[in-house]
User: Fold this.
Amino acid sequence: MHEMSICESILGLLRDQAQAQSFSKVKRVCLEIGPLSGVEIEALKFGFDVVMRDTLADGARLEIIETPGTAWCMPCGQSVTIEQRFDACPLCGSHQLQVTGGEELRIKELEVN
Assistant:
C-alpha cells in the first residue's frame, strides 16, 4: 500500500514546516488529488489516521479536494474530461490524448496552532 508511504511523506513535510514556521499542532490538512495520480483515496484516509497518531498532526482532520482528469484531444482540438489514463476522447473517440490535469497530489492548505 503506497498510500502509507505517501502519508509518511506528508508527515515529514508537516514536521519540516512546523520547524520552519514555528507551529506545534496541525488541526487540518487539505489535499488536492487527481484521478490520474494513482492514489486510492480510502486507503489514504486510513493511512493518514494511522501515520499521524502520536505526532503533531494527531487528530488532524483530513480534507480531500478531488480534481478532474483533463486532456487535450489532438484530432478534435478540444479539452476534455477523462476518468483514467488511456480513455478515449468523449467527443470523437480518439485515443490521441495529452493529459493536462488530474495527476495532482499536493497539500493545498494547512490549519495549524
Q: What stands out?
A: The mean pLDDT is 96.
